[in-house]
Amino acid sequence: MLYITYSLLGIFALDQRKNIVEYSPFPKKPEKIIQRLEEVKRGEIVPELEKILGRIKDKNIVTNIPFKHNNFHIEYKEKISSIEFLKSRDTALKLGFVNSIEEFNKLLSDIQITRTKNEIKLMERRDRIAMQVVSAIDDLTDITNRLSERLHEWYGLYYPELERKIKDNKKYSERISENPIRDYEKTIGMEFEKGDIDAIEKFAKETKNIFGLKTVLEKYIDELMLSIAPNVTSITGSILGAKLILLAGGLEKLARLPSSTIQLLGAEKALFRFMKSKKKSRPPKYGVLFLHPEVTNAPPELKGKVARIIASLISKAAKTDFYAKEDRSEIYKREFERKMREIKEN
Fold it and tell me: CB 229: neighbour CB atoms within 10 A?
């Protein structure tokens, strides 16, 4: 039985005492090493692994690489003990992967720098997706409002009493798409022919489908924002967090903004009017943050203060999301809740 494992140096075959019996090095370039490590973690048979498998005769393998091969009996283990030495500079020197400690340290540094750059690029791409999704949700909100208004007016000609029974637009469209025939004999509505009912039923179904699409995107952006900006999301929620990223022009730009600017994102027109009036009118106290429940529900005299505290926390959370890339959402959530309690108590 042999152990097959890996480190940034390459692929290794170890005997039962964890001695190296076969070794196939990765290309000595940071980009290639990172690529190989990612491929190995996905269970792909990289060229170095293929070489090792071609050299060994023992068909019984224990490995932490999730690959499959018909010619071997493979036991997968997520962790293999006592293999930390494979990552060490001494092993790298002994195997001739590097020629000096300085070269090894530089390689580690270059790998980390390259990995960080890749993560930032990925983060930038993902926040652009969030910007498009939240814009699509806004578009669908506008579309469903318009279609619902038309559905109410159209179907109201036939069955006006239904509007008093069902206030929610989504449920209204669902009710008509499921059963367009009115069930109230004393209605004051006009008579519809079969073709009229068929047409409005189709319209109601399409309206219902758009509501469904909006729900799907809302669930998607919940997951997306938790992967992109968990700390901001813990304070704002996914929709508002994505709107802030959109208004800032990206997560990186949001992370660089001072809290005073974050507080006024979305209030640019009001701020411009204030400046144009030579400061005779009142300046805006908040922008899109008015969508935050704590701002919405705060007394008028406290709305500005609440928005300022939320903006300050968002500024810190965005920096954590973009630069540190650590999920400290529980810490930010507790701090947010504590500050909201202090405002209400005072």
Answer: 31
